[in-house]
Amino acid sequence: MRSIIERTPVTYIAYMLILAGFAFLGVFTFTLANQHPIALVTGIGTALSFAGAIGGYYLRRYQIQHPLREDSPLLSVDLLTPPEYDSEVEQYLINYRPADRPS
Prior knowledge:
about 100 residues
């Protein structure tokens, strides 16, 4: 179960939930201004979207702090940064930064 959660792109899902939250917020504001009965539903959708996004980022933080294995990739919260393995980082340091190589 934990490996399925680790493979899930949590930051992408959290980012999409933030976008959905802002869309719900706009609809909520419009329905609230027009006193439409669906305002409550859109307000709950707004709250759930933002809460899900916050939960997604907390889950990613937990994944970064508690890796599944010793050879797990180095994770990032950034959407555009792919996971890096320790062996790739060490190879980069050997090839391009010999002075920064770990001893």
